[in-house]
Amino acid sequence: MNRLGKLAVLALSPVLLGAAEQLPDIVVAEQAEPAYVILSLKQSWDNPEARIWSWNPVMDKQLFLPCSNDPERRPCNELFRAPSEVKPVLDNTHLLVTASHGGAALIRIADKRVIWHVYPHNNPHSAALLPDGNVVTASSNGSYIRLFNLAKYNSADPGSTPAEQYFADDAHGVVWDAKRERLWSSGRWGICEWQYHADPEHPALKQAGFYPMIDPEPQGRGTYLQLNGHDLVLTPDGEQLLVTTEKAIYRFDLRSRSYSTSHALADIKSISILAGRELMLKPTESWWSPAVLFPDDKKLSASCHLPGAKIYKARWIPRLKQSE
Predict the structure, then answer these.
(1) Domain ranges of the chain
(2) Burial per residue of 77-102, b for 16 or more beta-carbon CB atoms within 10 angstroms, e otherwise
(3) Is this structure's pTM higher than 0.85?
(4) How far, in whole angstroms, is CA 6 from its chain's centroid?
(5) Which residue in 41, 98, 104, 314 could disulfide with 292, CB within 3.0 to 4.6 Å?
């Protein structure tokens, strides 16, 4: 059994509601507190009971140690300010998170245990788990993705975790495609395809393709358009990628390797789809919003307003029978 399988077995203590009762919750990366928070849709978010789980990394004693690969030698917890990503993983038993100040971590929901925490730095916007348990992060300021070898992770010195770095211009999104056994990343000029070589000693990535957006206008003469891709997610059927940009949300068909417009919605920071229902985060102040957006449900959008919050990304997660 690989590392991911072992983690999933260890994490089965949260009890999920039965299918008949199941009502998805929403998990958000919230920068005002800062915290990663699971919120119920059973009541308005101005009701404190809507908040059913949260983890504040800055206050977590598991992160109270120096970060050895930080130039300023700040404590690890300081590098988790400004949460920038949250992804339910391992059958929704863990959260894979990043923070703009430099950190990435895997958190077990059941007991808020930090399974590992690493430090890609330079404004990490996203992360993806690989089949062997390693992780890839995307850093926009540094224009790179970084592959961490977690087989050599040392909990006493997480900053020393070995990593390989690869250029990816304005890297923002990264996602693992299990069907094709490929990693995909989004950035300034398009979507990159990466082949993963799993090796306990020297895991590696190799770029297998690059797919820019081509200007369709005659005057463009086939020049590249700046995609400036932000969030990157697989559609539930695993056949397309959705990439959010400053202009619209585009679909990237993984069979034809071609783009089409999905939604004429600009500046969407995150998109999540469950059972055909779309959840988005559209900033109302700079890069954040105190509310999430359901494009086809204005009433539900109005009830999902978290007072004082600065939400950066939001994802669906099946409802957990547990309290904070």
Answers:
(1) 31-317
(2) bbbbbbbbbbbbbbebbbbbbbbbbb
(3) yes
(4) 22
(5) 314
How much is the CA Rg of the chain, to the nearest whole Å?
A: 19
Residue whose C-alpha is closest to residue 76's, from 159, 163, 140, 151: 159
pLDDT of residue 23: 65
d(CA 77, CA 105): 11
Query: Which is it for strands 311-317 and 249-253: parallel, antiparallel or unpaired?
Result: unpaired
> Residue 32, Cβ neighbours under 10 Å: how many?
15
CATH no. of 31-317: 2.120.10
Judged against a pLDDT cut of 70, whether residue 3 lies above it is answered with no
Q: Is the bond preceding residue 34 a cis peptide, omega within 30 degrees?
A: yes
| Cα separation, 46 vs 303, whole angstroms | 8
Cα distances (Å, whole numbers) of residue 81 to 59, 77, 209, 252: 10, 8, 34, 32
Within 10 angstroms of residue 240's Cβ, the number of other Cβ atoms is: 19
Please compute the mean of the pLDDT values over residues 255-276 and round it to a whole number. 95
What is the 3 state secondary structure string of the chain?
Answer: CCHHHHHHHHCCCCCECCCCCCCCEEEEEECCCCEEEEECCCCCCCCHHHEEEEECHHHCHHHCCECCCCCCCCEHHHHHCCEEEEEEECCCCEEEEEECCCCEEEEECCCCEEEEEECCCCCEEEEEECCCCCEEEEECCCCEEEEECHHHCCCCCHHHCCEEEEECCCCCEEEEECCCCEEEEECCCEEEEEEEECCCCCCEEEEEEEEEEECCCHHHCCCEECCCCCCEEECCCCCEEEEECCCCEEEEECCCCEEEEEECCCCCCEEEEECCEEEEECCCECCEECECECCCCHHHHHHCECCCCCEEEEEEECCECCCC
Calculate the dihedral angle through the C-alpha atoms of 91, 94, 100, 102, rounding to the nearest 10 degrees: -120
Question: Order of strands across the sheet with 163-167?
Answer: 124-129, 135-139, 144-148, 163-167
- Amino acid identity at 149: N
